[in-house]
Structures are given as C-alpha cells and as structure tokens.
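Budget justification, computational time. The allocation requested in the original proposal was used primarily to generate structure tokens for proteins on the priority list. As evidence of use, we reproduce two of the resulting records. The first is shown immediately below.
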Amino acid sequence: MTRTQRVPLDRMWYGGDYNPEQWPREVWDEDIRLMQRAAVTVATVAVFSWAKLEPEDGCFEFGWLDEVFERLHAAGIRVDLATATASPPSWLVRAHPEMLPVTASGTRLEFGSRQHYHPNSAVYRRHALRLVRALAERYGSHPALEAWHINNELACHVTHDYSPESAAAFRAWLRDRHGDIETLNASWGTAFWSQEYSDFDQIEPPRDTPSFKNPGQQLDFDRFMSDAWRECLRAEAELLRELTPDVPITTNFMGFFKGGDYWSWADELDFISDDEYPDPADPIAPAYAAMTRDLMRSLSGGAPWILMEQAPSAVNWRPRNAAKAAGWHRLLSLQSIARGADGIMQFQWRQSRIGAEKFHSGMLPHAGEDTRVFRETVSLGAELAGLRALVGTRCPAARVAILFDWTSWWALEQESTPASLSYLHIVFRWYHELWRRGVLVEFAKPGQALNDYDVVIAAGAVALSAEARTELARVVTRGGQLVVGYQTAVLDDSLGVLLGGYLGELQSVLGVHVEEFMPPAEPSLSGGAVPSLEISGLGAGAASEWGEVVRVHDAEVLASFVGGDLAGCPAITRRTDAAGGAGWYVATAPSALGEIASAVLEAAGIEHTLLPDQVEVVERGDHRFILNHSNVPVTVGEIEVAPRDVLIDSVLRVAV
C-alpha cells in the first residue's frame, strides 16, 4: 500500500484530548498558559461534545467552541477537531430507542455510558452526518484546523449488534456477497445440522443458540459488522472531503483490535492514528507496544502516523492500575517516534474532576503543575520540539514480514476448534524473538505481493484464500524464506477444510502435509499430570500449546518430538527450493523459538544480534534510537544506556 502523507504540521504533534466544556471559563486561561509551557502543538477537541454542540434536535450552539478555537489559535496551538459522533445525546436516544445496540442474548444496552448506538441505525447515521456538516461548514476554513478526527475508537464497546435493523442490513450484505441462496448454503455448509435456507429473509444474525453456531455464519457476521463500522467511517469521511477537501482525515485505531479489519478501514483515511495503553506492570508490554507501532506503520504503507492516545501515567480500567514509573512515559513515547510516529498525543490534557474517567491520568494531574507527571509533560514537549527534523521521515524498509489476517483471527478463536488458541499470542511469539534481535518487522495483508521481503512468517493464519496461499508459496519459489507455523492454511476463507493434509498450495513448497492434530491436554479435574512436549534438534527443549502428526514428502527434518504419542514425529522441517528459497514448517511452540528465528534470519542473510534484555535499537531517517526498557543500565556496543532511558543520535551507528 502506498499512502500519501497528509499531516501538514511541520512540527511534531504533541498534546492530547482537551475538554474545556467540563471546566469553568477561568480554568481555560490556565490551560492555555500551561499548554504553552509544555510546548503543546495540537489539541484534540470535541470528542464527546455532541450534547453540548446540539442540546436540542437541530439547535446548534457553537459559541463555546468558537471561543476554544480562538484561544488555541491565539496561542499557536492547532486543533484536531473531532466530529463528536461517538456519543449521541439523550434527546436523540429517547426519541429513537431503536438506535440502541442489542447483544446476542437480546439485551438492549441503554444510555448512560458511551457508544450507545449501533452502526446500522439509519437514524444515528442521519443525525451524525447533520452534525458533521454543521461542524465542517463552521470550522472547515478556520486557520487553526489541523485535521478531522472522525468519531472515537469506532466499535470499541459494541463490535457486534443483533438488533432488527442490523439483522436486515446483514441480509442485504449477504445478498451482495453471495448473490444467491444456493451459494450461501454451500459457503456456510448448511447441509450440516439441517440448517439450509430457501430465502435470505430467513437468516438472522448468529444470536445465542443451544449449541455451536454455524462457523460460516459467524465469520460472515464478523465481516459484516467490521464493514458496517467502516461504512460509518466512510460516510463521515466522504462528507468532510466534499466540504473541506484540503483538511486531512483520521480516526483513532486501537492497536490490535479484533472487532475491525483495519486493512480495509485504513483505506478511508489520510493518515493513520492509534490509541495504545501498555500496562506498566506487564514485563512484555514494551515488546507488545513495539508490535503495535509496527502494525500502524504497516497500515500506513510506511508513511508517518500519529499516536493519538496514551496515558501519561495510570489508566482507570484495569483491576489494578499501575502508574508509569519516572521516565517510562517518555520511553514509550519515543518508541513510537522511533517506529514512525510524527506525533505524541495523550488522553487527556487535564485530568477530569468528575465522571467515569476521573482517575485516568492526564498531562496535567489532579495535584496540578507542581508534580512529577506535569514536569515530565513539559520535558517531553521540549524534547519533541527538538526532533523536528524527523517529521516526514520514514523507517528503513523491513526485510521481514509477518502475515496478519483478521479473517484468521476471527476463525481461529471460534468455538468447536481443535484447541482454544489465541491468534495474537501466536503472532507475538514470533514478533518478540525478532524484536529481541533488533530486526524491524512489517505486517502484511493476506494476498498482497510479498516480493519486497526476504523472510515471511505466517503463523496461526488458519483461514486463507487460494490467492493468499499462492502468494505465500511464491516467497519460496522466488528465493525467499517462508516460515509457516501450526494452524496455518487449514481452512479456506469460507472455513471449508483444505482436504488431503491441509496447507493447500503450501504443501509443495514446504514438502510436508499434516495427518492429525494432537494438541497437548489440559490438566484433568482430578489433578492428573499432563505429559509435557519436548523436541530434539533445532530449538531443542520444551514445547507447548500444539503438536501434530506431520508427514514429510521431500523436506529435511530439523527437529522431532521426543516421547509420548508424537515420539519421532517431525516438529520442525525445511524444504530448500531450486531457486534457493526455503519453506520452513513449525508444528509446535518451542521454548527455544529464538534459535529457529535466528536460523531463518541467517538463511536470509539478515544481520541480527541478541540485544540485552528489554532493549531495542531502531533507525528512522538518519537517527538511531537505543531504548532501554529495563530497570538496570545496559551496554549496547560501547554505549551505556541508563535504566528506562533513550539515547538518540543522528550520526552514531552503534555496532550491535
């Protein structure tokens, strides 16, 4: 994907969600003074302001927002203006309760929180677009307007809606997708359990059922709901482009969010932005955050993106909300910059005094400006101002890609599967080993051309189209290294089994097929011991989560299972192609996965070195970032980096 970068600010974005409507006017003066002190460049405004902007049906009140615009503009602060469509006002909900979302069990979710609407509501869409039009006509030419911010975290709380209106929209979507009812019956396998339909009007969403739901119906409903939310995004974007064609458009993604296929959503935006809240108490949070940053850069086609939300310290929605220790917020912020971000934004500017998020940290905390958090806010603003030269630059092109597929995510985690698996965990295991070795990764969409990558990893990608499988096979035949992990290419993209040993077109380049799945058992209720998995050879040691009977055609066995029912069965294989490429198959989750990753990188001629624990080294433009996420000093090459610190150099090239 090639994306045109349309973030016109020539400085780093720095700021956060600004909610002056929650505070008296005298506080606004202090906000502006402290924003200037903190070198804030952008404020996101009006995210949850629909009721304030339209207190009655069709009666708009913009006076307060006019004043906010003028104050920010006078202070040299740009405005990322939200369309305010994320939280409809009570008068609209009471007049049209049919817009409220309904769960799979039939419960209607009521007003009193946020996102109390469903995306297929014609009433919601009509009123939302009327508000968007009013905002665009009033502020579209304002000199402070930096960008449009559509809605907020689309589908965050209501990924799926089972209301009558969504049911009707689902039937229309199915007609467009399948064409006729016979095709749908074949795709869903409705001959099983006497589920045949004779008309589209008989179909309902996959509400709660006595036993397992139809897998094809579930998958299509996942796709439909993702498309429905994208249509909300598209409708607002199209109107804004009509009225304000020169103002760039974004919406805030949520990292690896299962409810929406971001590959398709990204095409609606002028630049990508993301909300990310790593848990300070989680030791793998830095690596997982890096994976998320790389996804955003991949969705951007390599172009810069914006970190739209993060917490300056603690959040308020975990069972225990750990605060960020001194330096950690800066560290994670600069990690985003290193991995392609052109700005660092927070939720929110001033910590709320009242409401559901009053204990969520802000750039300006409850205790005021004489605080560690605000001092760090000021310091980070100054540092970002000094990184102005990075704006618009890119990270080097990655030589390694990991396939990421929302269809497979939805399919792998359905019920009635061989084992309960987490798609993200499977992907993260591979990413983590590459991260530890300082290898930059991009994520790839199934079916896209993969010619630019020397290594491609497909793990857990259970449901792939023939096009996607063929493109993966080409990696080997053109001389690249293809790594296929367990539960990849087991099904087609309608969830029909690929018969004859799974893997489809990949069998020829891998030189294997799979005869039988044998995942390890879970502990019994009686507390009986569970046989552990082990492998010998490459990656020798313990293994976990998965095992299977692999039959070799013309591949080399690099590791085998030891003991138990799988004793002697191949666990890791490699088939070398005449073109010099190789297809690797990994049938389990080895504890020494890093050894396998290193072997693949060496075969591809990609330089890598195991970095000190919790350290990453990333290049962007002519800068190199050395980030130490650990609590102890580390040495990288000849450079010592303090605990929770970042070193940035525009000339130094560290030997690692």
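The second record produced under the same allocation is shown here.
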Amino acid sequence: MIFTEMRHFLPSIFLSCILVVTVHARSWDLAVVIGSEIDFFARNGTLTGHANIAEAVALTGVTYDDTTRTMYLSDVRNNVSIFSNVLTEKDFNSTPLLKKENGMHIMGVVFDTLSHTLFWSDALKEIIATMYVPLDGKPSNPVILHNLTGNSPRGIALDACSRHIYWVNSNTTNPSIERSKLDGSDRKIVIKENLYEPLAVAVDHAERKLYWIDDVEGIHFKIERSNLDGSERELLVHNKHQQPVYLAVDSESFYWSDWVYSAVWTMPKNAKAGDLPTKFKSYYDSRRDADPAGIVTRDNTGKIDCLSILSIINKRTNVSRLVSRAETFNNLTTSTEESDLTTESSKYCLNGKLNKTDDMCRCKPGFTGPFCEISICHNYCLHGKCIINHHGLPECECSGTFSGVRCEKDVCHDYCLFDGKCSVQNGRPFCNCKYSSMGSRCEEPNNITEICPIYCANNRSELSSISIMLCRCTNSNQTAERITFNDNFQSGILLPMFAALIAALLVMIAGLSFYVNKLRRRPRIKRHYVVSKGVMPLTSRPEIPDNQCEITIENCCNMNICETPCFEPKLRTGVPRSNSIKKEEKNSLLDNMEGNSC
C-alpha cells in the first residue's frame, strides 16, 4: 500500500500489501500498524501522527523509503495484496500494485531504495518474492526469488549496505535464518543451532548486527542478536507469556509487537544484565479490534550512508583496541585523557557537532542520522544538482532536458518529429525543425519533394499527426510518395471488402436464377374431353347437351377416364425413363380413352 504523508498527518488509505507515505519534515521516529490504522511516534513514545486507512482490513508488514518519503504496507485480508496510495492535504487515490491470489498471505515487506525494488515473504505460498516499483508508471510483474516449500517463511529484513536479504524459516522441524544476495544468488544459512520457531528478523545498519525473535514452545520467547554472518551470538531477552510477532531496531533501542498484551515493547540495545523490557505503547484497553503488527523505524531505513557507517565501526574498533592495550600494559584504570578519547569516540558526528549535554549530534543542514552520516541529497536528484532549501528540504536544479521533482522526466523524449532537434527554453521543450517541416513539434512537412529523398535515403519511418511517409523503389532509384492515412485505409481495407461483398451477391443471384428457370420448365398437360353420361366418349366438342359433361385432365397422361392415375408427373417421379417408353405410354393412354367409356 502506498500513501503520502504531508506535514500534518491526514486520514490515509489502504493498500493490500504495500502503502506509501510522504513526509516533508522529521515528524516521527517509529510507525506501528494495527488493523486498518497507522500510529506514528517520537522516540520518547509521544504519539505524533495517526492515519486511518479506510479501505484497509488487516495491515501486517511495513517498510519505508526515506528518499521518496514513501511507506509500503501489506494487508492479509484484502482482495488486493499490494497497491499504492498517495495522500495529499485534501484527497487521495489508491492504485493497486498486486492483486491478491488464492493462498496469498504476505507477512513482511522490505524496500531497497537503491534499486527501487520491493521484497516480501509469503507464509502460505512459502516464497520470497520481489517486484520493481518505478517512480512513475506501473510496477513490474512479481518474480519468485526463493521457493521455500516446507520452510514456512515469516519475517524478512534487508541489509542495504552488503546488498543481502535475510528471512526466517519458522518450520519447527527445521528452523533457520537464511540470507542471499538481492538477485537470489549466494544463498546460505546464517543461524541454525538452538532455534525453535523464529518469527521475525531485523538488520541494524548502524551497528552491523542481526536481530531475531525465537518463540520457544509457545511459552517462552527469546530475542537474540549476532554479527551479520551469525558469529558472536548474544541473548538479549529471555522472557515468557508473550507472543512477539514483528521486530524493528533504531540507533538506540529495539522494539517488538506482542499479541498477548496487545502492546509494543522496547529495550535499549546496550541493556545490562537484569534489565527488563518496558511497554512502549499498550493497545489493550483501546477500542481497536486488532493487535499491533508491523513496526518500522525511521533511522534504520531509507537513506543509509553505508561508507560512513563502516568508517565509524572501524574507528570504534581501533579505539577499543587502543584502550584495551593501555589497560593491559599499565594494569590501571583508564586515564582521564583516554576516558575523554573513549567518550568522544562514542559519537562521531561526521557532518555536525556533538552536544555534550545530551551526547547527541547536531547535524548541519542537509544531513541527518544519529551521527549526521546520512545526506538528504544522496541519490535524490537523478539528473541535476541537489540543494537544501530554507526549510531544510532537498530541491533539484535539473540539467539538460530533464524536469520533475527529482529531474526524472526527459521532456524532449519523442517530442520533436521528422528529426527535429529538441531543447529546453523557459522550462518547456522547443523544436528546431529540419527538412523544411513546420509546427511546434515539426509535425507539418512543408516541401514533400525535399523531404522524401532524405527520408528514403535514411530508411527511417516518421509518423506525424496527419500522414505516413512510405518509400517506393524503382530501377534501383528510390522515390517516395506521401499517402494519407485515409487513403491507406480505403485502398487496403475498404476496397477488398467491397469487392468481396459484390462477388457474394453475384453468386447468390446466379443461384436464384438457375432454380427459377428450372421451375419454369416444368411440363403442364391440360386436356379437355366431352363425354356422354350414357354410352361413349366424344372426340369433338359440340354444344354440350344436358346428358353430357366436360372433363378436364391436367398433368395426367397414363390413365383411363374411369380409373385413377397410374403414375406421377415427370417432376414428381424419381424413376428415369427413355423417350420411346414415354411415347408408348401416351399412345396406350389415348387408345384406352377412345375405346372405353364411363
């Protein structure tokens, strides 16, 4: 789901698996999704914003892209699994990114800012999938990165610096934590031993650590961490009577959502033995008919300066080694000078100054992060120069023919026709036309006789708003003609259709004519005889007295006057006979008629 968060949070809308929120100021440090809502908090637990996603049902995973200030969320009970949402100060519209399919249950999502790619784990389909989400336009089709049949994948995490994806396999018969490169290669198991049912995983970029939750037999649970390769494993929390589901970490603490107490818990990363977790936010008495789910922290996502982080870790390592050697050789407490060195080394403000009052970095304009290591302008302008405005926000001065908020649009792309040269004047595209063409986009050819030789010699196809240029070659010499779209359509489609219709009509007329002519040739015999009611038939037709009658015989040629017909007419019989047989039957009929009477 995607929605845009302005300076003041407004009610937002829901995306089934992915949501986007855009923020113009540092208004939150931690976001928690619960049901159809999102709560935004400061690090001290103060609620700074709230979004009610009207179309959401059960939000689960959440991730954040600080470069575009976009938040992605997942929903497991909506008919759309992934879609985007842009929130403005007045209204917003949702755009689906991935329609839900049968057996789809997306639990966790992470977003890689550098490649603008989304990754998610599907617990029912048992896959790790990925999808490219461009700045503009439709996302690509989802691709299965790993098929994890029988492993029950749940939590997922991204290591933006080492370019790795981590996930947990929650199958209690074969639990593990795995990782691979973002393209799916170099897959390996990171943690295998002493696991029961791992549910969530998180990568701490600042400390280069891996955190995970292990639900032990449904009663106890553990939160552990290690190096990213699984070495130097540490137990941070070992407690009971909770059901932790999602995990997140920032520069100071780690957080997890619990479905038993319906709360979000937290604990410092540098907690000492015996320290207990505290409730960051309780939803137990709230009216929301849902439990807290996905958590995302602002510091650990989005724009991460990996080079600065690695440099800080190396410096810390070197300082620790120096202090350790001093203690070993002198067997004394660290001197005041060394203590100051250690204290100062705990905070390396790369682009700012250390405030000794609260031991926090005060960053210069254009930088953020716990050590001022993140440049707001890093990879912000795609084709231009990034500057920081008076509000402390990045702005782009685009170069060449590019425009847009991040200089992502080439205004000259496919703008000038007929090889016109495009440039930008007063922020708008301008065409210098060739081939004597005219118009704002060089769409009107002025001299076709001049254009055609150049066009056909270059063997190019240019389509303007009114015509199509075609080349016709004769005797090895190329000539050209301009054919309008209507002429092409008429000669290529209408004329053949009209000719076929006329041919069909002619065939029908010929068939009808044949059958009509055949019916007209049907023979009809009609004879009149005057007969006496008493003695003999008459061969002539005098005036008919009272005792005589006139008989009309039609279509009957082989019968006696006092007998019924003996055969059907020619057109009604199916037995062919020769002409001689027909003449015999006719003569016999006449003889019988003359020799017999009624």
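A brief technical remark on that second record: The chain has a mean pLDDT of 76.
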